Amino acid sequence: NFSPNPYFEDTKLTKTYYFDEEGVPKITGTTIRWKDGM
């Protein structure tokens, strides 16, 4: 978890790794909510 900072609003960023039915790796992650001016 992140403490308040001048760059983005999120307190937690995640990344998930998984494999589709054909064994191809897929990665999804949090969309960062940047603060104004970033």
UniProtKB/TrEMBL annotation:
It comes from the Eukaryota. Signal peptide: none annotated. Keywords: Chaperone. InterPro entries: NAP-like_sf, NAP_family. GO terms for molecular function: histone binding. SUPFAM superfamilies: NAP-like. It holds the Pfam family NAP. Coiled coil: none annotated. GO terms for biological process: double-strand break repair via homologous recombination; nucleosome assembly. Belongs to the nucleosome assembly protein (NAP) family. This is Uncharacterized protein.
